[in-house]
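for the record, two folds in this file. i put them one after another cuz i was lazy. first one right below, seq on top, structure tokens after. the second one comes after a little note so u can tell where it starts
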Amino acid sequence: MDSLIPFTTSGSLVDCVDRKMLVVLRDGRKLQGVLRSYDQFANLVLEDTVERIYHQDVFAEMWRGLFLIRGENVVLLGEIDLDQEDEVPLRQVEWSALEPYHKQDIAVKKHREEIKADVLFEEKGFCKEGGEGDGY
């Protein structure tokens, strides 16, 4: 009966080792690489890692190599379907051409989040992230 209970711990990652994975981090970065190892805290080791940035219908990649990721920074981890990977309707451009647009997108998002945090704080009594009462 216990074999029917699904893994809800880092042990569920055992089938993902040696597969190409997409990892989205808390700071918004998107990494693609081959998962080589993990531990009980879901710390990950990615090999042949590239960081991708996006803007509208284009993307750019920057080689990052071997990457160690602390488990608490992982928002999403998913396997990349190698059969469908090349069918993405996005055009690849140079990192240097796309980086200014990406930085602008990040700045706009950060400004929006600050406004939202101010409204939630002033009107609803929520604490601001990183502020008093935000400890865990």
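(here's the note) second protein begins now
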Amino acid sequence: MATRIVDSADVSPQASLGEDSSVWHLAQVREGAVLGRGCVVGRGAYIGSGVRLGDHCKVQNYALVYEPAQLADGVFVGPAAVLTNDTFPRAINPDGSLKSAADWESVGVTVGRGASIGARAVCVAPVTVGEWATVAAGAVVTRDVPAHALVVGVPARHVGWVGRAGHPLEQTTVPGQWRCPTTGDLYRENRGTLTPEGDT
């Protein structure tokens, strides 16, 4: 399949879109943005200049991904979620003058492979969301999220683990072992980190 860009989308000629990607109505993809293969950018979504998306990412309707965010393969960004880029936002400088691009330094959000950012969640840069983690809808992430973690609330807090299928894991009778109720895959918890059993 060829890349599909609907007429009402605003895609910079300086952006790079991988094959089989789609950009839908009223979405904007800025100059220097790089999208991998098979990405979907939903209605009204914004991809900032220099943002990088891996293959098969989904950025849902009205989500805002500000530069210099980096999304690995298979990342899901839910409707109206925001990945910010200014830790100390101000419209003006202390002297009252309007801030320009030279008056602040953008910082980004990094999202690992297969992770999901829920609807209306906010990731306050600079933070890293680990591989296969899930940020619940409406959560506000202010610190790094471990791989496979499930975080909820404002500010987001770690309440459990999720597998690659996205479902919450269940603890087995073996200490430190967790099981996916959907796939049966087993995971091992050790000192606040979770890895699939058999991974090194």
